[in-house]
Amino acid sequence: MSAARADAPVLDRIRVGSAPDSWGVWFPDDARQVPWRRFLDEVTEAGYDWIELGPYGYLPTDPAVLRDETARRGLGVSAGTVFTSLHHGPAVWDATWAQVSRVAALARATGAGHLVAIPSFWRDDRTAEELEPPELTAAQWRHLAEGTERLARQVREEFGLMLVVHPHADTHLDTEEHVTRFLDATDSGLVSLCLDTGHYAYCGGDSVALIRTYGERIGYLHLKQVDPGVLADVRAKGTAFGPAVRQGVMCEPPRGVPALPPVLEAAQELGTALFAIVEQDMYPCPPERPLPIARRTRRFLRSCGA
């Protein structure tokens, strides 16, 4: 692996990892995905020290088994991931907590400190069918803010984890306008963001500007880039996220936007330790494709000082 450039900053507060997503894993069980042992072997071979759990059930859900499998490869677990639809109000709380609690329990048992929460999609990510209006009502915004604060509080109290909310394409939390509205409506002492640089760029946002403006709310990073040419076509045609991924909208760094060195440098300047987990959406993909990309991406991030 290459060393950092002589002029690269020392990004000693950034802990770099990767995730099943970068191996084309979107589902707990899918014949087109690499087996979980292969993912763990290859993420280690690529030079990463940290992973996320990915979709619940892809990696072993027995904490003892998962701890053994990660420990013998020298891997730590940074976070688990859940999907929520809290804008629907108190009626969805019980189902939400049932899902969240099992993922949070596994995350805690494997030493993770974070839980990434992704809002539900407003349109089907395969067919582009509109499942609900793309804009929330005032009441739904209130439900989203209050429900997220409740979830963050309970996750912290019962599991000792920090909830980080992930703005995501084709959800109600996507653009700069929506993200800032959400941040302004929620308690900064409870609710933090998982800033995904690729999704934010996909939706027209500026990651560096967000970090500089709302730095105290950035609790976690996903490192990702979009191909501007493909994105322009996706926007022109109104393509849903799933087909856009198959079209190659998320690309290997440093080939896309945003440029990652300024993002990492802005994050370093916050003065707090942050995970920066590489994600390159590419479901489905040939099983031999992820490892070479992961190796090159890790070399690139080292050259940036991370």
Automatic annotation (TrEMBL):
<dbReference type="InterPro" id="IPR050312">
    <property type="entry name" value="IolE/XylAMocC-like"/>
</dbReference>
<dbReference type="InterPro" id="IPR013022">
    <property type="entry name" value="Xyl_isomerase-like_TIM-brl"/>
</dbReference>
<dbReference type="Pfam" id="PF01261">
    <property type="entry name" value="AP_endonuc_2"/>
</dbReference>
<feature type="domain" description="Xylose isomerase-like TIM barrel">
    <location>
        <begin position="41"/>
        <end position="304"/>
    </location>
</feature>
<protein>
    <submittedName>
        <fullName>TIM barrel protein</fullName>
    </submittedName>
</protein>
<dbReference type="InterPro" id="IPR036237">
    <property type="entry name" value="Xyl_isomerase-like_sf"/>
</dbReference>
